[in-house]
Design goal:
By secondary structure, this protein is of the alpha/beta class. An eight-stranded parallel β-sheet has the order 9-8-7-4-3-16-15-10. Bound molecules: flavin mononucleotide. The site of flavin mononucleotide has 27 residues, from strand 6.
Length: 312
């Protein structure tokens, strides 16, 4: 059985990538997960400098999901290269570095630095974090902003460039198109949905940041719809995510049009989820006599619906 998938110049052994912010820098999990068996590891979002993030409380459980407003706490790119990348290399992880900036110049600088670092497989541009005041989502919510940041990074790196799109827009497909036009090798989606929760006894917001990002199974059907819309709009590969917790969820994203997927919140429930997901994919392939998993990408059958439209 062949589970491999291709994203630009990258071939991944399987489509399962750990989502940024839900798997640390990967090395924290290396005693419980063989990182080389994953399709990839998207590390926690990195700025040029270290950041403290928001004060607690910054995580709240919600029905079928969670809210977070971490505020992109991180060790900064230089410490990452010194302290984390060597072990990721030793463990043969395929490393997607999630980069964040408040200006285009910061994204460009990060891309330059990481392009010279050994062991980085791809750059995921976080233009979609809902939890910081400046940068990030400001680019991701503007079509010219998305185009500008992607093309600026494209010019300075030969690594695959993968902008991560926000779902907090009306027409996500137009953002995928802007990213593709600017030279992105793939797009990943979705980041979290802007949301909030209130403690009615105290009438205070449950997060110190007041608002945060919703993730987990609660968002999955919306994320699947967005992947489907983007698949119809662009030809570059799509990395889909949002609430994946079972092999069937992975397949749903792939059939909707995702070449690979990321798994985030589910790691907090079950850090050993990877084996279960891989076994489930193999079982599906055996039952459906599929030799190459990549063959199912975008194979959603909407013919009955289309025929109903035509005849009505
Ligand atoms: C605690 C937490 C931290 C996150 N940090 C980042 C981050 O640093 N960069 C990023 O692009 N996305 C970040 N995300 C978003 C996830 O990578 C993912 O896009 C989102 O959670 C949807 O997937 P899921 O439902 O499988 O978690 C974070 C999500 C959570 C829950």
């Amino acid at each position: 059985m062949d589970l491999s998938v291709t994203i630009g110049s990258l071939t991944l052994p399987n489509p399962l990538i750990a989502a940024s912010g839900c798997f640390g820098y990967g090395v924290e999990y290396s005693d419980v997960v063989d990182l080389s068996t994953l399709g990839g590891v998207a590390v926690k979002g990195l700025f040029l400098a270290e950041r403290e993030g928001h004060p607690p409380p910054r995580i709240v459980e919600t029905p079928a999901g969670m809210l977070n407003a971490i505020g992109l706490q991180g060790i900064g790119v230089h410490r990452f290269i010194r302290e984390k990348l060597p072990e990721l290399r030793d463990r043969r992880a395929i490393v997607f570095v999630n980069i964040c900036g408040t200006t285009i110049d910061e994204y460009v600088e990060l891309a330059r630095i990481l392009s010279d670092a050994e062991g980085v497989a791809a750059l995921e541009l976080n233009i979609s974090c809902p939890n910081i005041k400046e940068g990030g989502i400001t680019f991701g919510c503007s079509l010219p902003g998305t185009h500008a940041v992607v093309s600026a990074v494209r010019k300075v790196t030969s690594l695959p460039v993968i902008p991560k799109l926000t779902p907090n827009v009306t027409d996500v497909a137009s953002f995928a198109r802007a990213a593709a036009d600017a030279g992105a090798d793939a797009v990943s989606l979705v980041n979290t949905f802007l949301a909030m929760a209130i403690d009615v006894e105290t009438r205070r917001p449950k997060l110190s940041n007041i608002v945060g990002g919703l993730s987990g199974p609660a968002i999955r059907p919306i994320a699947v719809r967005m992947v489907y819309e983007c698949r119809r709009a662009v030809t570059i590969p799509i990395i889909g995510m949002g609430g994946i917790a079972t092999a069937s969820d992975v397949l749903e994203f792939m059939i909707a049009g995702a070449t690979a997927v990321q798994v985030g919140t589910a790691n907090f429930v079950d850090p050993f989820i990877w084996r279960t997901l891989l076994d489930g994919l193999r079982d599906y392939m055996a039952r459906h006599e599929i030799a190459e998993l990549s063959g199912i990408v975008g194979t959603i059958d909407t013919s009955k619906r289309e025929q109903a439209w035509i005849s009505s």
